[in-house]
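Q: I'm teaching a short session on how sequence maps to structure, and I want students to see two examples side by side rather than one. Could you give me a first protein with its sequence written out and its structure tokens following it? Keep the formatting plain so it prints cleanly on a handout.
A: Of course. Example one:
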Amino acid sequence: MAYLEIILLVLAGLTLFLFALNYLSDGLKAISGDKLQGWLKTFTRTVFTSILTGVVVTTLLDSSSAVIIMTIALVNSGALTFRQAIGIVLGANIGTTFSSELIAFDIGKWAGVPMAVGLGIMILARRETLTQWGQVILGFGMLFLGLFLMEEAVQPLKHLPQVVNWMKGLAEPWIGALTGAGVTVLLQSSSATVGMSVVLAGQGLLTLGAGIAVMMGAELGTCADTLVASVGRTKAAVRTGLFHLLFNLLSITLGLLLIVPFTELVLLISKQAAVGRQLANAHVLFNVLGVLLAAPFTSRLAAVFERWVPDTISPPKRAVMSH
């Protein structure tokens, strides 16, 4: 019965967390209207501004997948070029780390406050904009309540040897990464996977090394829906989806090969912090380093992808010879 109670409570927390992510994203989209697409088109003239735009928009929407899928749609329509899209994709990888830093604050017990405030605004508001802001605040509260439910549910698992031993197995980098990728594909949210990892690390169920491996896997799993979004689109849109996949794949492979020195670097930077905070910091550091390594080579990378997936050119018509 104890197992069933744990499973049901984790399921309730996870469902609420995923619902809150979508609810929050919808609220922010409603507030911004068409401005987000306008920002993507306006502030992408250089690599730096493209990356910065990707960071800001992804932080606002709390979903790198949503931003990259929006970018693929804009590339498909011709509103953005593939080269502009590269910077946005890189920036989205950094922007998605904001939620893990927020989750690491461990403020789940206060979730009722923003929920009550948000609901109160929605009930009393006379203007649609205020109602939308109420939705955003309520969404934040539900997000933290979902995490709090999962955190409370997994506490008894610390005393179960089978669970502890399985969690220790995730410290094997490739196993941890495959688990993170699988969970992310299943949940369709890298934020949920990393969020759960931060919670489990905070409860002492995941070591920092295991959490980092799962986090890296989550970065790969999030490519699934962006790849699906690029199917059947223009060649430029397909290139955008492929770039997202290959960039994440290469950075994750490098990260897993160097996971020991990377973990030591994280410990050096945040050795006084709790394990959950260390994992959140590792998420930021991993994505920032990946972008810093790739940013100087965006023009060359764009040229390579344009050769691999060239735009379709109709063959010249042959002249008909009279006999």
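Q: Perfect. Now a second example for contrast.
A: Example two:
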Amino acid sequence: MDFLTIPKRTSGNRTSGLTSVVDFGTPLGELNNILVDYGHIIDIAKIGIGSAYVTPNVKKKVDLYKEFKIKPYCGGTLFEKCYYQNKTPEYVSYLHNLGIEWIEISNGTLEIPLQERLQIISWLKKDFRVIAEVGSKDADNHMPVSEWKEEVRLLLEAGCEYVITEGRDSGTAGIYEKNGTIKSNLIHELLEVADAEKIIFEAPSPKHQMYFIKEIGPNVNLGNVKLQDVLVLEAQRCGLRSETFFLEASECNLL
């Protein structure tokens, strides 16, 4: 029975209000149990870092996510490893064999020139839905705001479905300071050059998630969400936690 007035959430095969989880090796049986209850509030699943390459029964895991209408993809670190070893064509074949339709192009560990990444995206977007990531995993790499804005703009213009803002699973790099503080000025600057619906903000903790919900709205795209936090995040989006308690039903759209 629905009797509360809460922010309206996007639903179904949504393109905004996305919850993108990170899977760092959840066993198949445990994953199935999680998805039975919470699969309807998960949209994308990243098989974290390069772990897909050593995940037992990875094809079964990919198929399980797809069974619940969740889009699986491999973490950008695996792409970077293949790029570094000149194995990108083999990586493409690997993804095709797994039935994965999404690919992440990142430079969180390697410094791949932007123009080269744009060329790779131009090549891959014929066969995949491409997600690109902006920002470094190195907390000491202080990328100017102007570069963030330019990369986001050009990556979307190149045909990426979404751009991910790097935050790591610890929330201590990229769009975050070393101590986990959000670079709020950077976030506002990025929203000047890109539609919030096209950005997935990595927000690994409830504290980070609540910031984006309050700043952008309940239907903000959030990534690097831990599987065990999925229900808590949905409650936050619906104004069912103290920090988001006063969200209005009218705030269903991104600001």
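Q: What should students look for in example two?
A: Point them to this: The beta strands are 19-23, 44-47, 71-74, 102-105, 129-134, 162-165, 199-202, 222-226. Also worth mentioning: The first strand starts at residue 19 and ends at 23.
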